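Complex record, four chains
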Amino acid sequence: MNSSNDLKQEVTDKYSLRGRVFNRIREDILNGKYKDHEELREVAIGEELGVSRTPVREAFRQLELEGLIQIIPNKGAYVTGIKVKDIKDIYMIRSKLEGLCARWACEHITEEQLEEMEENIFLAEFHASKGHMEQIAELDNRFHNILYESCNSKMLEHLLKDYHQYVWRIRKQSLVTKRGNASNGEHRAIMEAIKEKNPDKAEQLANQHMINAYNNMLSNGFFDDYDDEHQDENQE
Amino acid sequence: MNSSNDLKQEVTDKYSLRGRVFNRIREDILNGKYKDHEELREVAIGEELGVSRTPVREAFRQLELEGLIQIIPNKGAYVTGIKVKDIKDIYMIRSKLEGLCARWACEHITEEQLEEMEENIFLAEFHASKGHMEQIAELDNRFHNILYESCNSKMLEHLLKDYHQYVWRIRKQSLVTKRGNASNGEHRAIMEAIKEKNPDKAEQLANQHMINAYNNMLSNGFFDDYDDEHQDENQE
DNA sequence: GATGGTATGATTGTATACAATTATACGAAA
DNA sequence: TTTCGTATAATTGTATACAATCATACCATC
């Protein structure tokens, strides 16, 4: 039930103080500047960003709903660090939901979306052969967003985009994974299944695609000392 | 990625002005007092509830993340009505996620949780035989919450509780559905599958349980003129 | 020395004041 | 009559002031 992915919202985030504060704090939690259980004080952050308490407070309320901080009334705001377990859970949840999304896409995808997917995959193959990691990552992003938009469900699209951005923010600080070829092949398979209107197959493939992506992160040692870097001493 | 389900949060909602404003507006959107695309003005709502703009604004920010209103910078806050399609989508999404939840519960449920489930089902059978609709609804709620808590995933628990509350708020204004017996039988089946640690079966049953619940709403004519009541003239 | 209570400071909650932006109304020019 | 521009009003964005609550330190008492 979140938001923050339409154009208007991006404009807000860019030009309003609240939006800037919100994004800044979110980044700082995700990249580990603010550690788990750390207290965030309104004045301190306000001074750091050169704004008053008002926009900071509004940003706090949003961050709380995003689950990134916990606000205890009359006491303070405390960082809720993201744990390795959370990332795993998100991938498993996404696995189910991307499956559902691919299923619905079989019925509702438009010709234009199918064409953009095809182009996307074609381009990704090209950049993979050249080793252009930056572009591959961008195209991967875009592929999933097309898929989300093609399912004809604002609810599901919303949810998946949120999760997608969420893990993206975490992943992007690490090296981009070297899975371009395999991943793109899976994209092609999903697209083919959607094109031939085979919902069972599309769902199953999208399901597995997400699980593979997760396993890839695992075997690349992404998590090896993630918690150490993002949690402070008193673990739970 | 939402929140608003732990005890602390409830305390906030009850005693802080912001929390009261937030709940009030949410109710008013869900029960149709504020129609689709209606503009919400900060001062007007503030005066109506006897508070200043500050808590109203903070509530607005939260409502935006919940997807209930859309805020256009420097312009205003506009209600985003819930459409029949959204409710259907939520049930289908929940179907997948409750399945995943039941699967994980097989591994992680505690003895106490299993016992509470058993007691819950027992009580529900009793009240069903007596026709105590109020209690049946309450027990149904509780059953699902136990299930959510038993999956050992804060992420999934969070998400499912949000959706659960969301549809609950919509459903409760209508007559309580008369599905007590069948629903409770399905609860029992899910519990048995979890108890015997059969994740495939548990997932499949929880899946189907949600689809049945949705079909029941359909055949009870719940949606017949829902949009008419909750959307204003210019539909999309 | 340990314990408890009070005073002080720090922090959040709310209200209000001011600035910036947007909508509306009115009139002049074509 | 229509259209454009300007002035005015309304509304949101931000900053600040004040109130309420919570944390800390210090001192009195046992």
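Note: The beta strands of chain B are 39-40, 69-72, 76-79.
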